[in-house]
Structure formats: structure tokens, C-alpha cells
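During the second half of the funding period, the structural biology subgroup turned its attention to how the target accommodates small molecules. The most pressing case was PRP, which had performed well in the primary screen but for which no bound structure existed. We therefore specified the complex as follows and requested a full 3D prediction, including the ligand pose.
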Amino acid sequence: MMARERLRIAVQKSGRLSESCFDLLERCGLRFRRSRDGLFCYGEGEPVDLLLVRDDDIPGLIGQGVCDLGIVGRNVLEEYAAGVGATALRSLRDLGFGRCRLAIAIPREADYGGPGSLAGLRIATSYPNLLRDWLRRQSVAAAVVTLAGSVEIAPRLGTADAICDLVQSGATLLANQLREVDCVLDSEAALVGPVSLPVDERGDAIEWLLRRVDGVTRVRGSRLLLLQAARDCVDAIIAALPGAPSPTVLQMDGRPGEVMVQALCADELGWRQLEAIQRAGARELFVLPVERALA
Ligand code: PRP
Ligand code: ZN
């Protein structure tokens, strides 16, 4: 196989993570042109291309060296690792989106008194390796029924007594008269790569990409607050700022006693918080989104 110079990242073609993946990569300065069949994105400007695939295939593609990196839920990464029994892959960065949990759910009206209640039951899942590991840790003997999809309808079809599936909002469980009773794994999207990174152009690209990912994730959700006030009010205003940031207070030219305050707030600033800051004496409040940061 000819050595590849361009970095290739595997991302979910369509699904829960797709939109946030593209958003992140775009914020990292990557632009793409999509192939006609929609399976490949050619990077314009930077030497980084995307392969659009099913999320479950992503760890395998990195393991085989077809792709250098992938963006995938930790649930998929851990299921792969539990299956192949090796740790050739690792999460390079948690990405803070796609939060969900791999959970045990049972019919709404069934009783549950802890993992022991699952003994002797049939549990349907697309995550047989993680489920088996969890059952072993709980010392519970249950039958694992592996399904590729539509796990949530198995109890109604009578092919299983319980399920082990991803839960994000809980809407799927609710619609299927199931209730969540135990958590097997907490998950979020991760940037995944091989344990030993390549030491060539691709390695260099991974390095700058990681720096940019950090620059984006560090300030995600942050807001820059700008305001003017009389210097006397500054202490009260700072006390009203959420998340206790340490603001910069600047003297305003030609207006003694007047200052400008700027503060990076980790949380979104709601109307109530802004109104409280205004009552503390702030004027001309501006809330600006923060796109990226470089330390
Ligand atoms: C998961 C899971 C449920 C749904 C749960 O599927 O299988 O169907 O999301 O979300 P909710 O609690 O918000 O209803 P996913 O989108 O990951 O698809 P996949 O399993 O085909 O990758
Ligand atoms: Zn999937």
C-alpha cells in the first residue's frame, strides 16, 4: 500500500453525531467538497479528508489503518475494545457532545430491585461485549440477545425481557413503554486514534488538529460579556456574574470614574442573569459568542 500523506478521518455518515462532527471540523478551519456518492469528503486547503461511514465501523477502520482518526461515541469505541480484547485505539479527546448512556431498560410495569433482578432474563442489545462485561461485574447470569438495530421493540415482540441500549433524551424508551433502571456506561463523542500516532506529515496534521480541537472545545458555550459602569458599581457587578470569572476592568478614556468590564463566562448568560447584572449598575451590556481560543 502506498504511504498516504493526507490525513483521513472517519465520521458517522448520518446519525446523532454527524451534524456536531461537521460543525467541530468546520470550526477547526477545515472545508470539504463532498463526493457525488456522498461517501468521501475531500479537504480543501488542508490535507485532511473524511470518510463517511456507519459509526460501528469506525474503530475497525482505524484499527486496519484505512483511517487515521475517527469521531465516534465512547460506547462504540469501548464495545470494539471489549470485543477485540486489545487496546490499539484510544480516545485522544472527549468532545463534549453526543452525551448519552448505555442503559438497561425493562417494561414499565416490571419490578426492579437491582441488577440481581435480571438473573435468568433475556436482554437484547447491540452492545453484547459491554453488556456481558457489565453482567459479569454484577455477578448476574442472563442471556444476551444480540440485535443489529430496533432493540427497543424486542420486549414487545417477546424476543427479550429487557434491553441494553443507548438513551439520550429517553424519548425512545418512553415511546416503547420501557423504563431505564441501570447504567452500563456513560458516553459522549470522542476523537479516537491509534495508541501510537504516525511520525510523518499525518502526525503533524494530527498535532495541529488536536490543538485546534482544544481551542474550540475549551470555549464551547462560553460568552464574552462587555459592559460599562461607574467604578463604584464594579464590585456589585462582579458579584452578579455567573460562574465567578475574573473580569478585566478598563478605565475609559476621558471619562473618570467610568470603566468598561469584560468577562469570559463559562455558561450562557440568560436574561435573568443579565437583568441582575444591569440592576447592579451595568450599562451597555453586550453578550458575544466565543468561537475559538488560542492560549
Ligand atoms: C440510539 C438508540 C435509540 C436512541 C435513543 O440510536 O439506539 O434508538 O438513540 O435516543 P433517545 O433517548 O433520545 O430517544 P442511535 O441514534 O445511536 O443510532 P445507531 O444505534 O443506529 O447508531
Ligand atoms: Zn450505530
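Two results from this model are relevant to the next phase. The pocket of PRP (ligand 1) is lined by residues 15-16, 55, 149, 165-172 (CB under 6 Å). The chain has three domains: 7-97+189-217, 100-187, 223-289.
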